[in-house]
Amino acid sequence: MASSRTKITEIVTGLAMLGFPSIDRALAVRPDWFHNVTDDEYDLLSDERETGDFDDDFEMAWEHGRRFLESGDGLRGRVPDRVEWQGPGRPPGYDQIPADLRIDHVYLVSCKYGSDILYNAAPAHVFDRLLAERRGDRTDWFLEVAPEAFQDLYERSVMSLSLEGMPGSVADLDGEARLRLKDALPTRGTWPDACVSPYRDFVNAVSVATAHRWKDNLVDRATEEEMLWRLLRFQPAPYFVLGASSAGSPIRVRVGTPADFRQSYSIRSFDVWADAMGQPLVRWRAELKGARRPIEGHVEVRWSRGRFGGVPEAKVYLDTPHAEVANYTTIG
Fold this sequence. Notes:
Elements lengths: L3 H13 L6 H7 L4 E2 L3 H13 L3 H16 L12 E3 L15 E3 L3 E7 L3 E5 L1 H5 L13 H5 L1 H15 L13 H10 L8 H25 L3 H11 L7 E6 L5 E6 L2 H7 L1 E9 L6 E9 L5 E9 L8 E7 L9 E3 L2
Parallel strand pairs: 1-2, 4-6
Antiparallel strand pairs: 2-3, 3-4, 5-11, 6-7, 7-12, 8-9, 9-10, 10-11
């Protein structure tokens, strides 16, 4: 279920596009031409507005929507006839644009606050399929790319915690055994003394093997270019991102299409390399002809539910500020 903050930032951004003079007036009117917002959501926003706990979020979202209404890249001062909130539900599997708002059936807007994450996906989807083909993955990436280091970390963990009745092989862990091991280990921070060195070796092995796997699949310049397009979420139609970075800086950008990209830029190089820093990590960097600076990011490969809990996931981060990313155009 979407949090209060998520509902505030998304719904208030849309309300500001409708030309109301203030947040409070918009919440009082509850316009029926803002679709998919229920009375329960309006009640929640009104209650949160009274508490004052989310004042900064209300004000930033309102400013984003107002700027979009006035922007030459956006609505150009024309109040829309229809705004739709996509709501807390998951979009259909083939919906590739991360839109939270749709305006007049044309403009798509993603409201993204407090996160620089581009994707949270299965490692195989990122490193093997290069974000091109979406399907369910239950593969244990750690077991696949670094089985010996993973087995050693598992054995040392079981031994240091004196856990009896555990499987001999990490490959044989079932849900119950994973939960037992996860609950016995510290949730974060330092591992047990006997596991510190094996964990360091495990992190290094996964990082190096993953970087090699990714690099081997980037077979030519065309593949590297498409990888960059997918990482940056370029789509056949442009859309807008309105929100704030993890540092709190406002983000107001139009995301261009692959065709837009090719009009101004071309790939010089796309490099990936291992950089283990407390957990398996692979960095990526694209050098572009026509851009003022490279585009950089990293991918963290981690357990989805804590140490030894769940299958691994890949969190893809954008490290370059949005305003400095090629084919992202600042609006307003």
